[in-house]
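Sequence and structure are kept together here, with a separate record for every protein. A complete record is shown below as an example:
=====
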Amino acid sequence: MLALVNYSKNVSVCQIRTPMETKEASKWVSINEACEILGITRPSIYRLVKNGILPAYRIKGVRGMKFKREDVLALIERVKPDEVEEEVRKA
């Protein structure tokens, strides 16, 4: 969330953090955020959890599954140039 602050002639933009945007809270992501980061659907996330590929957590007092941001990001791999050539040949 951004706020426009006007101190007489000086106008500045500052970021206002909600409680969920604190440093500690940002290490956890919801299923919707995980879907957005990975570019996949909710059923795909559930499949990753069921197959033990993506660890999921339940935080007491918080609704739904949560995921560690680092676990979600760890699923993203860099593709090597020769792997791209293989994909092109298959197509």
Observations:
- The CA atoms of residues 45 and 51 lie 10 Å apart.
